[in-house]
Amino acid sequence: MKKLLHTNHFAEMLRFGFVGVVNTLVDIGVFSLAIFLGIPRVFSQVAGYLAGTINSFFWNKHFTFRDKDHTDILKVMLFVGVNLVSLGASSWGIFLLPLMGMPLWLAKGCVTILSLAINFFGYRWLVFRKK
């Protein structure tokens, strides 16, 4: 455990957590606004997720993983791929969980946690991996 606390990976995890909180606030803010405006929940999920994703790429590249590589086209494509997987999983969840009786906001919390896990490991191992 001591070794983990003193590694660059732990610092990345902390920065990812901070960026994740900001992304989640952006996501929930856009999602809530869309729901308030009467947009169906799956489309609201997509809108919120996309807003958080745009924010996420910038902050994770420059702050979390401190990526200095300028070959961003491949990174953007990988980032989009990871986020499409995450978006698909979260959209199915936000559609299915309320149908199974889960309150919408609890379902939103569950799919947010699922997305967080998919995104961290996808970003760390695919998008911003160290050479």
Automatic annotation (TrEMBL):
Keywords: Membrane, Transmembrane, Transmembrane helix. One of its GO terms (biological process) is polysaccharide biosynthetic process. The chain crosses the membrane at residues 12-36, 42-60, 72-99, 105-126. It comes from the Bacteria. It is a multi-pass membrane protein. Signal peptide: none annotated. GO terms for cellular component: plasma membrane. Residues 15-128 form the GtrA/DPMS transmembrane domain. Its main location: membrane. It is found in: Membrane. Belongs to the GtrA family. This is GtrA family protein. It comes from Thermospira aquatica.
